[in-house]
Each structure stands twice: as structure tokens, then as C-alpha cells.
């Protein structure tokens, strides 16, 4: 067998490995289950309210700016949007801040997959920092595959299920870009980052969109999309904050 053919067969074998086998080499046995947390454990967490109702998450990045997913804000009237911060209760508490400006990423698209899924929200009155309200720094580079990350929000506890009354957080792991791209038939771009667990059962879900994916003390992702919620073999997908960092800085100064 010549060398070129041998290399071709080895590459084909590697790319053809089952997704779950590829992920299990990185992730098996290291997952902490989802749990209720206090807002002091994630003081950057915010809620994106439309006409007074929680619909998406958001993330505090400065006194006047929050990030969310563009698919949450793309059709929004700014006068109908309020950002709630400083509470770990889904529908009450904290402080309310009227939005005065929405800046959606100009390259946001939904085909062949939701891409550049990020938007900036400017509020009229500043977020007052405390142990319950804090900005989070933005990552300048994405975490390597296998890194533990946490995501949080007030979204449903199961796909299509009920919403919690209290803030939830789950620890998952960054999935190799190539492995994730294979799972989603080539739709994963450089402005996306994937995370999940081998067997499914840990993920963000409906209502968590626009919320944070955090590595250490840095924001690395904005909750975006996936195949259902916590499905085996299909990691969740977040907007890659590091890849979109310059756009955020250019439009907000943050």
C-alpha cells in the first residue's frame, strides 16, 4: 500500500469515528449536574424581558451594556425591552433597566445555521454593581477542547418542559470544533463554540438563549442553538465571544 493511500485511509477512519466515541475520550465521568444557584454565584446573569415577560437571557458586560443572542432581539422594538439584573428568581426581584439601543450583529444569519448570533443592548440607567450585579470580562481566545465551562439561565429544565422559578447552572465541557462540525454536518463556523457531555442530559435549553457560557472568570459564549436540548451526540452551540470580540469593542467600547 502506498503512503498516500495509507494516509487517506487513516484520515477517513478518524473522521468516520462515532461522535459519542470522540466526545467520550474527553468528557466521560467528569460532569457536575445542573443545580439551583444564587445570583452571587453568577452576578453577570441577566434576563431579557419583552413586554414584561422573561424570554431570553442576557449578560452584563459594563454599567450600560449587556449582550444577548441576536435571535432574541432581531425583531424586537427597543421600547418593549427591559433588562432585569440582580435576582436569582425568574420573574421578580432585582432591578429593571429599560433598553434604549439594540445593535444586532450585521452578519447575523439563520441559514444554513444560526451564525454571528450576538447583539448588544444599551440601557438607560446604569447597572449598579454589588455582590449580585457584576460585569464579566470577555474572552480574547476560546477555551481548548475539554475545558470545563458553565452555563446558566432560567430556561426550561427539559426540552419543551416547565421553567424553573430559580436560576440554574450546569457544568459541561468544550467540544472539539471538528467533532462538533461533524455532528452538525458541516454547519459549525469559527464564530461558534460547542459544549456538552457524552451521554446528553446536560445543556442549555429553551429560554436560556442569550445567556452566558463561562470559562474561569471569562465569558466565552452566548447561548445560541442546538439539536433539541441535551440530546446525545449533539452538543449545544454558543456564539464564540472571542471571535466576535472586536465587533463588541467597536460598537460598545467595552
UniProtKB/TrEMBL annotation:
Family classification: Belongs to the peptidase S1 family.
A Pfam family assignment: Trypsin
UniProt-listed CDD domains: Tryp_SPc
Name recorded for this polypeptide: Peptidase S1 domain-containing protein
PANTHER family the UniProt entry points to: AT26814P-RELATED, POLYSERASE-RELATED
Cleavable signal peptide: 1-16
Gene3D superfamilies per record: Trypsin-like serine proteases
PROSITE patterns named among the record's database cross-references: TRYPSIN_DOM (PS50240), TRYPSIN_HIS (PS00134), TRYPSIN_SER (PS00135)
Amino acid at each position: 500500500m502506498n503512503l498516500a493511500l495509507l494516509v487517506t485511509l487513516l484520515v477517513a477512519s478518524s473522521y468516520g469515528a462515532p461522535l459519542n466515541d470522540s466526545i467520550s475520550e474527553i468528557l466521560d465521568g467528569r460532569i457536575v449536574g445542573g443545580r439551583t444557584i444564587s445570583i452571587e454565584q453568577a452576578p453577570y446573569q441577566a434576563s431579557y424581558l419583552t413586554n414584561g415577560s422573561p424570554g431570553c437571557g442576557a449578560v452584563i458586560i459594563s454599567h450600560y451594556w449587556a449582550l444577548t443572542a441576536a435571535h432574541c432581539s432581531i425583531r424586537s422594538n427597543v421600547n418593549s425591552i427591559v433588562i432585569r439584573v440582580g435576582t436569582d428568581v425568574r420573574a421578580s426581584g432585582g432591578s429593571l433597566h429599560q433598553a434604549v439601543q439594540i445593535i444586532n450583529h450585521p452578519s447575523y444569519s439563520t441559514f444554513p445555521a444560526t451564525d454571528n448570533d450576538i447583539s448588544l443592548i444599551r440601557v438607560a440607567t446604569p447597572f449598579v454593581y454589588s455582590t449580585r450585579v457584576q460585569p464579566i470580562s470577555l474572552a480574547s481566545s476560546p477555551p481548548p477542547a475539554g475545558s470545563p465551562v458553565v452555563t446558566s439561565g432560567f430556561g426550561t429544565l427539559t426540552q419543551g418542559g416547565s421553567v424553573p422559578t430559580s436560576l440554574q447552572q450546569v457544568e459541561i465541557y468544550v467540544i472539539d470544533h471538528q467533532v462538533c462540525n461533524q455532528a452538525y454536518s458541516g454547519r459549525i463556523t469559527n464564530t461558534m463554540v460547542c459544549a456538552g457531555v457524552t451521554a446528553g442530559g446536560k445543556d442549555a435549553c429553551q429560554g436560556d438563549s442569550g445567556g452566558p457560557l463561562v470559562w474561569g472568570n471569562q465569558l466565552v459564549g452566548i447561548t445560541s442553538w442546538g439539536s433539541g436540548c441535551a440530546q446525545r451526540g449533539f452538543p449545544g452551540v454558543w456564539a464564540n465571544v472571542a471571535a466576535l470580540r472586536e465587533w463588541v469593542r467597536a460598537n460598545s467600547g467595552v
